Amino acid sequence: MDVLSGSLKKLRKAETAAEKVDLVHAAQKSTIKSVRYCPMVFKDIKDEKEKAKATADYKRLIGLTYAKLCELEMAYLAGDEEKADEIKGELKDLKKDGHEKYTD
């Protein structure tokens, strides 16, 4: 997730659409890799049904994040900076939701 966060921060300094798309690709790859891992807080969930529900929700958030990154890529390819800014805001909201639920 550090790659995802770092890539999104670097977007502010990227000048060309190609640079931005490359950063989004790095974020997409990182997001796909993260679905293999469960957050550390899951070890504290003793009820298997609750753990399964939390795991499904975590994967849902990862999927939504990946989908938003694809939308961001499309916005940059279309040269639509306004739409890209909107999507970056939505990504921040997803990050906030995930961090509230799945970090200590």
Explain what you see.
This protein has helices at residues 2-10, 17-34, 48-78, 81-102. The chain is 77% helix and 0% strand. The two termini are 15 Å apart. The protein contains four helices and no strands. The longest helix is centred in the middle third of the chain and has 31 residues, at 48-78. It is mainly α and 104 residues long. The model has no long low-confidence stretch (mean pLDDT 93). Helix 1 (2-10) runs antiparallel to helix 2, helix 2 packs antiparallel against helix 3 and helix 3 packs antiparallel against helix 4.
Brief write-up:
With 104 residues, the protein is mainly α. It is 77% helix and 0% strand. It has four helices and no strands.
* E-strand count: 0
End-to-end CA span: 15 Å
Count of alpha/pi helices: 4
H and E string: HHHH
Please describe the biggest sheet, giving its number of strands, its sense, and whether it closes into a barrel: none
Helix proportion range:
over 70%
Structural class by sheet pairing and helices: mainly alpha
Radius of gyration: 15 Å
What are the segments in which pLDDT stays under 50 over at least 5 consecutive residues?
none
Q: Give the amount of beta strand, in percent.
A: under 5%
Described by the principal axes of the CA atoms, the overall outline is: elongated
* Average pLDDT score: 93
Question: What tags apply to this protein structure?
Answer:
104 residues; mainly alpha; 4 helices; elongated
